[in-house]
């Protein structure tokens, strides 16, 4: 009995039913408490159409499962791969495609054989060498069975996919290859009309169709010549079913590309979003430097005539601080480094106002010293405390800096016993900058509060997560 068998071959013979499990669909119907078994018999062409639908589902599931892996996403989106990455890429596809080919040969389930479309995809994504190598491995089950044309044909599929990749000048075009041929034809015709060139979509469409037609013709010519077919293909009894076979192969190439391209677009959008946020974050961080420089140079200028020695001391301290800033431009630094910078800054302010007017107290939890914090996040707060809180007081005052690790959060507090304020008060460049940087770096996971009492002082508190896990948005 040939394959697929014709409808007349089926009757009530249980051996026939057991021989072709995919060919019969059993329906269990309950009628007044009794169960009745109904049998639906498919013709050969109907069975082929059923298997094609199953095949499309297998390819979609396979592509979706792969793209959930961060390792695979990194591997497939690389424009150029080294030898090790090419081997990894070939190994992933080779194992799955070879397993599908082996299941077809051993069990007879054609729906899991993705040798043509899968090997072509490997070549298209990885190049001629991975494509040809995977084609060789995938063809082994069929070759060992006697399908001796499988080896050169499937290797050719991988090679052709790799050749298209090499000749493609615009890689983004084959990412846009659609499972629907008409979409590819319309876009390719438009590009040929406007630019006078054949795009990658047209090359993929024509190549896959040519390979599928070649397989159909070769397999048809050799039917009856040998006991075992020398090349696997679906045997159909109508040209429309044959056309469906070809279209299904095109879809098996287009579906993974469409799924992967959606993920690729999401990755690119996320990278652009992160780059935009990073640029904004850098701009906010850079804004602190001229603000700090302006205030310090203004203080040095005011001392040039009245106290040249103090002006010189301020400028020396300022040059030391900026030397440190130039050598360390990280967005995040350990709290210990931030506190070292605050010490340098306070020594500068002491030179401006005198040691007797500014007192400094610290209460630092040793567990907090290694926690990363945004660079120069404390300096604007300390500067505000001195400039608006302590300097207007004739007798001066003290600043207290606290850092405490509370579970998964870090709590930073800057207190002063200066003039204080009411209402909005100190909402200048420095405070707004700190607010925005915390929002960009941590989103809603960071808190920033100001509590001030006129005549008694101000307390600024920052709470941020110990783990950076940035939530930029």
Number of H- or I-type helical stretches? 15
Structural class: alpha+beta
- Write the H/E string, N to C: HEEHHHHHHHHHHHEHEEHEEHEE
- Give the uncertain stretches in residue-range form: 1-31, 469-473
Can you count the beta strands? 9
Shape: elongated
Radius of gyration: 36 Å
Looking across the biggest beta sheet, what order are the strands in? 4-6-7-9-8
Question: Beta fraction of the residues?
Answer: 5-15%
Largest sheet: 5 strands, mixed
What is the CA–CA distance across the termini? 65 Å
Whole-number tally of structural domains: 3
Query: Helicity, in percent?
Result: 55-70%
How much is the average pLDDT?
79
Assembly category: single chain
Write the layout of secondary structure elements.
Blueprint: H1 14-19, E1 24-31, E2 34-41, H2 44-67, H3 70-76, H4 83-107, H5 115-126, H6 128-145, H7 150-167, H8 171-175, H9 181-195, H10 200-221, H11 239-303, H12 308-327, E3 332-334, H13 335-353, E4 358-364, E5 372-374, H14 379-390, E6 397-406, E7 409-416, H15 429-442, E8 447-453, E9 457-465
Parallel strand pairs: 4-6
Antiparallel strand pairs: 1-2, 3-5, 6-7, 7-9, 8-9
Helix pairs in contact: 2-11, 4-5, 4-6, 5-6, 5-7, 5-11, 6-7, 7-10, 9-10, 10-11, 11-12, 11-15, 12-13
Written overview of the protein:
The longest helix is centred in the middle third of the chain and has 65 residues. This protein has three domains: 42 residues, no CATH class; 227 residues, no CATH class; 162 residues, Histidine kinase-like ATPase, C-terminal domain (Heat Shock Protein 90), CATH 3.30.565.10. The chain contains 15 helices and nine strands. The strands form three sheets. The protein has a five-stranded mixed β-sheet, with helices on one face. A two-stranded antiparallel sheet has the order 1-2. A two-stranded antiparallel sheet has the order 3-5. The protein is elongated and about 105 Å long. The chain is an alpha+beta fold and 473 residues long. Helix 5 runs parallel beside helix 11, helix 11 runs antiparallel to helix 12 and helix 12 runs antiparallel to helix 13. A hairpin with a 3-residue loop joins strand 8 and strand 9. 32% of the residues are buried. Helix content is 60%, strand content 13%.
């Amino acid at each position: 009995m040939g394959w697929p068998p014709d409808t007349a071959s089926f009757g009530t013979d249980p051996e026939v039913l057991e021989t072709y499990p995919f060919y019969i669909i059993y329906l269990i119907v309950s009628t007044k408490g009794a169960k009745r078994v109904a049998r639906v018999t498919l013709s050969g062409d109907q069975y082929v159409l059923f298997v094609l639908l199953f095949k499309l589902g297998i390819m979609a599931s396979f592509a979706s499962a792969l793209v959930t892996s961060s390792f695979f996403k990194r591997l497939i989106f690389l424009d150029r791969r080294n030898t090790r990455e090419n081997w990894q890429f070939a190994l992933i596809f080779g194992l799955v495609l070879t397993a599908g080919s082996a299941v077809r040969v051993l069990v007879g389930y054609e729906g899991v054989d993705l040798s043509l479309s899968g090997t072509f995809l490997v070549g298209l994504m990885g190049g001629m060498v991975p494509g040809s190598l995977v084609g060789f491995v995938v063809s082994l089950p069929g070759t060992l069975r006697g399908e001796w044309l499988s080896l050169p044909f499937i290797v050719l599929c991988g090679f052709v996919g790799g050749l298209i990749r090499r000749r493609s000048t615009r890689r983004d075009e084959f990412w846009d290859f659609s499972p629907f041929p008409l979409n590819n034809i319309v876009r390719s015709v438009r590009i040929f009309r406007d630019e006078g060139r054949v795009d990658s979509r047209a090359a993929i469409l024509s190549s896959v169709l040519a390979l599928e037609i070649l397989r159909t013709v070769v397999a048809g010519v050799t039917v009856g010549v040998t006991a075992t077919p020398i090349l696997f293909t679906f045997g159909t009894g109508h040209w429309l079913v044959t056309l469906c076979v070809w279209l299904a192969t095109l879809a098996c190439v287009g579906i993974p590309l469409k799924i992967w391209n959606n993920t690729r677009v999401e990755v690119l959008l996320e990278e652009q979003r992160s780059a935009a946020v990073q640029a904004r974050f850098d701009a906010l961080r850079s804004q602190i430097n001229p603000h700090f420089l302006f205030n310090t140079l203004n203080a040095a200028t005011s001392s040039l005539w009245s106290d040249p020695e103090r002006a010189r001391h301020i400028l020396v301290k300022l040059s030391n601080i900026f030397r440190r800033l130039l050598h360390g431009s990280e967005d995040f630094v350990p709290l210990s480094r931030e506190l070292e910078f605050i010490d340098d800054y306070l020594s500068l302010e002491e030179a401006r106002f005198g040691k007797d007017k500014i007192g400094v107290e610290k209460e630092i939890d040793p567990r907090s010293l290694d926690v990363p914090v945004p660079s120069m996040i404390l300096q604007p707060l300390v500067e505000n405390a001195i400039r608006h809180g302590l300097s207007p007081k004739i007798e001066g005052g003290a600043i207290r800096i606290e850092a405490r690790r509370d579970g998964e959060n870090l709590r930073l507090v800057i207190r002063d016993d200066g003039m204080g304020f009411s209402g909005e008060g100190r909402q200048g460049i420095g405070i707004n900058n700190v607010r925005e940087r915390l929002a960009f770096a941590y989103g809603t996971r960071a808190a920033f509060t100001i509590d001030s009492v006129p005549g008694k002082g101000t307390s600024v508190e920052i709470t941020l997560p110990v783990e950076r896990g940035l939530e930029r948005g």
